[in-house]
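Section 3.1: Structural characterization of target chains.
Under the original work plan, the team committed to producing a structural model for every single-chain target entering the pipeline before any wet-lab resources were allocated. The record below documents one such target. The sequence was received from the expression subgroup and is listed exactly as submitted; it comprises 428 residues.
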Amino acid sequence: MTASANTLTRQALSRKRLVLLALGMICLLFIGLIYGYSMFVLPMKEDFGLDDIGPVFYIMMVAFCIGTLSCSFLLKRFAPRTMMIAAAILFAIAFCSTGMLGKSVGVPVLYVSYAIIGGLASGVGYTGIVGTVVPWFPDRTGLASGLLLLGFGISSLLLGNIVLAMRAVTGSIGTVFVGVGIAGAVLSLLLAALLTRPPVNIAQIMATGSGSDAETPSEAERYDPSIHFENDSVLKTPIFIVYFVAFTLVSVMGLGVIGSIASDGMMLGLSELFSSTLVGLVALSNGLIRIVLGALIDRKGTPFTYIFEAVVTLLGMLCILAAFIFELPTLYVIGALSSVVAYNPVLSSAFVRLRFGPKRYPINLAIINLCVLPAALINIVLSNILGPDARFEFFIIATINLVLTLIASLIFRKLWRKDFTGIDSVKK
């Protein structure tokens, strides 16, 4: 009877975590829509009667970082469902107020509603979902991260195009924003009703089908070796510092490339239609690669995946440089599709979970996502120094960043092997 009950417990946990994963993906589709900003710039200018919008995107990045960090600390005191309710309210306010007040108030409402409140909503929702759902998958951390962040990554392509199509029907993007705000809030509230933390011994239960304390030391440690390091401070651990600095460099490149794909394509002779389509294709590529990276992490290990990312991204950036040197737009398309592989949150999510365990996972996840903040500030400085037309010079800097990232990935592998010496169940 006991064995049967334990099996049913494992089966029940398996079903629940799959439901949470599916709902989390759908919610992240809406939460990630705020990153479709580049698709909405022209419609917002036209429908709201604006000449210039200003640095809304970078303000949003700062607010996103504040939201992720705040949520990670609040999760220590409040249940995950409470944070999702807060994210739902913020999301509804951000899109509904932007849609209703954008034309009458203008740019200030974009700064306050879309950028600040929307960025906070995105940060809180992101950390609430990823920080709670990923720990349900100690055996499939990479794949769970990849699937969740697939929703976040393809949001612009999928929902962004739906928003633009609905704008053609309603005649105003403001009306569509109101609908998006309500729909996103409802889905977030649905997830909030089900979202709970996993049992503290989920690794043991999933490994053995039993929650017996007697089996904890051997089985649980083989199943989830990160429990050896769950008391490590990320800010005092060399492998984390190396990764954080390198991912900041990658983020400088990623933000700079993604924010200018359409204009760079037209600069090289691509049509306006194809350049706009390329934005969606890059979003799709960046989304689908998340599943591949997640599977690689689970099968080949974190260090292998990190080196793979660095090599592919560097080759993509070299294609972009060649496209500008030889004026070959085809090379730019190839480069744009592959140069953002490393600008991807899947490895970050899996790394902090697999190396530092579930105990402080939401906080560690928020800390690693803070790299977006210095990256956004560096991009602002570079754009002011180089000017908007000095794209080749920017790509030279980005290439140097990626060379340093490749070197960092090799150092990362050495540190990873050192940390997990003697633990045979870890892929090195």
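Residues 1-6, 213-217 have pLDDT under 50 and may be disordered.
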